[in-house]
Amino acid sequence: MNKAVYLIIVSLLVSTLGFSQKKKELIAQVAQLKAKALEMQQEVDQMKAEKVVDLTDEFQNFSYAFGVSMGGTLKNLGFDSLSYNSFTSAVEDIMLGQEKMTPEAAQGLIQEAIEKATKAKAAEGELFLSENKKNANIVTTASGLQYEIIKNGDGQIPVATDGVQVHYTGMLIDGKVFDSSVERGEPLSIGVNGVIKGWTEALLLMPVGSKWKLFIPQELGYGARGAGGGEIPPYSTLIFEVELLSID
Q1: What is the CATH code for 131-247?
Q2: What is the C-alpha separation between 231 and 229, in angstroms, rounded?
């Protein structure tokens, strides 16, 4: 056999054997990937099953209730999210006596985070009001209250001892509505002195029949305490559309 032909045949045989081996390796890798995918799916299914809460079970019911209480506290402080994996790990670690930080260190971190969040919320509101007052339609009072007259009535102006009926819609500066008598279809009866400072100041300026848009700094609103079970975070600047319907 010609030496060149012999080399070609040998080369083809080697290539064929190499391809066959690679094919076997590829099949083995695909099988491993399928097995891994099945294992991962089983883990996901197990995690989903573990997340199912059975409130008819006394222990689960108590655990869930405790979570509601703690979650409500966090929401009232202005937090709307957590690393839930870290949170549950910390609870489990403390129960087992394996916590990774001291209670004092934990309290310090929590206080620092709260102060950072509240300062950011207050600064956000101050910036909003600073920009808002540049609008030619906005009136700014000595206290920092801002208002825009949507409709000016010609009725009587309340005094501090009066009760009034109003329609209102309250929202945060991002536009999120947290309360509305308009949506409920029922006006609110209140005392002029029985509301937040920003409202009181505005009502003492509004003739009956007026509709104003109020921009209330946090110190004239709910300040550090927030309100509405977390709907109004601490240090929130508030916006209200208020229509003064009548004096009671």
Answers
A1: 3.10.50.40
A2: 6
How far, in Å, CA of 146 to CA of 134, rounded?
11
Q: Is the distance from CB of 201 to CB of 220 less than 8 angstroms?
A: yes
Question: For the chain, how far is it from start to end, CA to CA, in angstroms?
Answer: 118
Rounded to whole angstroms, how far apart are CA atoms 235 and 118?
Answer: 6
Indicate if 168 belongs to the active site.
yes
Q: Which of 64, 114, 157, 179 is catalytic?
A: 179
Q: Which two tokens stand for residue 239?
A: 């916006």
Report domain extents, the chain.
3-96, 131-247
Taking only Cα atoms into account, the Rg of the chain, rounded to an integer number of angstroms, comes to 33
CA–CA dist 120, 92 (Å, integer) = 32
pTM above the 0.70 mark? Answer: no
Tens of pLDDT, residue by residue over 65-124, are 888 888 888 877 768 788 888 888 888 898 899 999 998 998 999 889 888 888 888 899
Please provide residue 153's backbone torsions phi and psi, each rounded to the nearest 5 degrees.
Answer: -80, 175
Instruction: Indicate if 222 belongs to the active site.
Output: yes
Active site residue 179: yes
Instruction: Note if 240 is an active site residue.
Output: yes
